[in-house]
Amino acid sequence: MLKDILSIKDFDRNLLESFIADVKNFEGPKVKFPTAHPGCGFTEANKPKILATLFFEPSTRTRLSFESAMIRLGGQCIGFSDPQNSSVQKGESIRDTIKTIEGYADCIVIRHHVEGTARLAASLTSLPVINAGDGSNSHISQHLLDLYTIQQKLDRLDNLKIGYIGDLKYGRTVRGLAYALSLLPNNRHYFVAPDPGLQIDEIGFLTPGSYEEHNDLSPELLSELDVLYVTRLQKERYPDPQEYNRIIRRYRITKETLLPTKKGFIVMHPLPRNTEIAEEVDELPSAAYFAQAHNGAIVRKCLLYNLITNQGLSY
Ligand code: NCD
Fold first, then answer.
1. What's the predicted TM-score (pTM) here?
2. What is the DSSP letter of 113?
3. Ligand 1 pocket test, candidate residues 53, 62, 294, most atoms within 8 A of CB
4. How confident is the model over 82-103, as pLDDT tens digits?
5. Ligand 1: which residues within 6 Å by Cβ?
6. Per-state percent for the chain, helix, strand, coil, to nearest 5
7. Per residue in 170-183, pLDDT tens?
8. Rounded to whole angstroms, how far apart are CA atoms 164 and 146?
9. Exactly one of 62, 117, 257, 261 is catalytic; which is it?
């Protein structure tokens, strides 16, 4: 039983496949938190389930899709998206913030720039905690929605050739997705870094023959891929702004770039995008990034439902 959803490394193949299969049950409007008996008034049974969203870093999709998911399940949300408006501004510690919120909610979603904050939060409370991003480390619900989107579009999570291009070092979406796909058979990974300093690191989990590192996206490589996963340069984590401006011009996916791709190919992006995918790509059937964003709410419904009604994830 997984009480907290903190890192993809807490998943094994069985849990991952069972979870992705379960998400399908949340596509429609039916699954809801158990509701109160009519007429029982303000009793324990009639207490709405409450989600606390604590966002110490900016977010659009992650926070709003968690909140939308909670409301669609019949629950309610509290929280902050700007820590300047919370007592953190007065110097309150994470420990005291979590200990306080524990009394107000049934589940906590937290995003923080310091790696390990979600795990720390989980160790301080008996409530389920979901990591919505901790620095460059983990963004587990993003990995799960990426997997769900691949399954939905390509009908499999194995035997894939997946290319990743962009900021592979400071971004937190690529390493975890590669880890998840490494749990499934015959997936091959192609890491394309537009600058050597942005090449992926900490991928000891991949077996030596299962990946390649490149410094550009050649038409030959592109023609082999089932998925191209594009990410933005992480300006806010980037040490030198001049370097940022130099590298940002080096990769941009346009309709023309995608001409060599094969049938069934999809292009993904966790969003937000800057200039790395031209808007003209949006109209191609291969553009899967808004499907990802929409699937985020469905995947998060499945997470919240399991965590709040079963006190954890287990199949
Ligand atoms: C990602 C993140 O926050 O890591 N955004 C998201 O949650 N969809 C990607 C990014 O910010 O580049």
1. 0.95
2. S
3. 62
4. 888 888 788 889 999 999 999 9
5. 61-62, 133, 139, 142, 171-173, 231-232, 270-271
6. 40, 15, 45
7. 899 999 999 999 99
8. 13
9. 62
